[in-house]
Prior knowledge:
By secondary structure, this protein is α/β, with parallel strands linked by helices. It folds into 2 domains: 3-172, Peroxisomal Thiolase, Chain A, domain 1 (3-Layer(aba) Sandwich); 175-324, 3-Layer(aba) Sandwich (Peroxisomal Thiolase, Chain A, domain 1), CATH 3.40.47. It has helices at residues 19-23, 30-37, 51-66, 90-98, 114-127, 151-154, 203-207, 217-239, 256-266, 277-280, 287-297, and strands at residues 3-11, 15-18, 41-44, 75-79, 104-108, 133-141, 159-168, 174-182, 190-191, 214-215, 248-251, 306-313, 317-324. The strands form 4 sheets. A 5-stranded mixed beta sheet has the order 1-7-6-4-5, with helices on both faces. The chain has a 4-stranded mixed beta sheet with strand order 8-13-12-11, with helices on both faces. Strand 12 (306-313) and strand 13 form a beta hairpin. Helix 3 packs across helix 4 (90-98) and helix 8 (217-239) runs parallel beside helix 9 (256-266). The protein is globular. The structure holds oxa(dethia)-CoA. Oxa(dethia)-CoA is lined by residues 28, 32, 36-37, 112, 151-152, 155, 217-218, 220-221, 224, 254-255, 258, 282, 312-313.
Amino acid sequence: MPIHITGTGSYTPERVLTNADLEAMVDTSDEWIRTRTGIHQRHIKAEDQATSDLALEAAQAALDAAGVSAEELDVLLVATCTPDSPMPGSATIVQDKLGAKNAFAMDLNAACSGFLYALECARGLLESGRHRKALVIGAESMSSIVNWEDRTTCILFGDGAGAAVVEYRETPGGLGLASLGANGALKELLNIPAGGSREPLSEEALQDHRNCIKMSGQEVFKHAVSHMTRTAKQLLAEADWQADELALVIPHQANQRILEAIRSRVGVEKDKVFVNVDRTGNTSAASVGIALDEAVRSGRLQPGDKVMLLAFGAGFTWGGFLLEWSKA
Ligand code: UT7
């Protein structure tokens, strides 16, 4: 049953935080950040913006690109680990502001893999035949969960949103094989310890920044490379596609060195991997959606192109998607 991405959109906040800005905040250097991560800058939301506001901008752009009205949507999914508040889901706020009054709306948290998890859920809902049009959004305000005194994490993350309209269409191509996975046993390597039901916020937790991201960078790095590489090779083998047939690989943007490691292990040419981590930093669940939209809008995808999406994040969670690009 052909399910297609028929429109994409993205949004990054106006304010840009450069590596030079970070040099004035923590003990770091532009040179260290560039060489260890490839990041030059990241976007940071305004104080009066929340995740749903970023999501709304990307959502509207995706609907415009697809030529779909908000009322036509049946399904609205927001992948995020930084919702506006614990309740209600940010998806319901987007649903209201967008005027998607016929859609059911819910959040989904798979950290940086969220966009791919949401895409696979949307595909399943459409394949059930009970829903026709879905809006998948990845949106994050990572600046709200970063410890701005911790140089090992605060230099990595940025804010933003990416969105895709997903529809059933009787045209060839569209979403192909997907592979998603998780391993909750490794949750301590990347998490936010406090602020939930296990460790509610307390003065002590706030003082220790336990409401912020904690990460064992090197361990996460190794798992990110091995899981995304394995997923990519498995999908190519299952689909009987060769790596050199791929027109573009659009991976989660966490670190340029991770992208390079995957690229060389999978055997993809340098210019076939989409990179925007230099401008966005790691935007978690928003990352693949933003990169996909930038690829579309910059003319990097032509009808019939074979594309691979890849992601890895806290949990751990990971995933990959094959698709044949179509302007259905
Ligand atoms: O989105 C989901 C997953 N997230 C990721 O995929 C992130 C994965 N991890 C990474 O990208 C990398 O591990 C980091 C960029 C976080 C760190 O790079 P690294 O090459 O693994 O550095 P490291 O942690 O081994 O640290 C090397 C040195 C240490 O100093 P010593 O102990 O060698 O003296 C750190 O203290 O670099 C130091 N360091 C810094 N120096 C300047 C750590 N952060 C900084 C910094 N500026 N911002």
